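We modelled the chain as a single entity of 96 amino acids. Its sequence is:
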Amino acid sequence: MQELAEIIVTDPEVQAKLFEQARAGKLPSHLMLELFRYHGGKPPERVEVVPPNTDNAELRARLGRLSKQDLRAYVDLTRKMMAPGKSSQDARGPQI
């Protein structure tokens, strides 16, 4: 039986027909699911979502090592990035 299955599955005409049916959306759904399982492996039974790290200790430590001038530049850049719908020139304000 395994030999027969191998002959059928490796036949170029059978492969072409399966491909045509898959492209046309006419391949039986159970067969399509099996193809996806063979291609990508069995999907996980459950997905574990890891919550993001909201501890800002590392960021605070890095910011604490900045000079006052660098900290001001960082704050200015952050404000420019957070300004809704404004270009960097607009966020900077009028130049004298």
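As a brief sanity check on the tokenised model: The radius of gyration is 29 Å. Helices lie at 2-10, 12-24, 29-40, 57-64, 68-82, 88-92.
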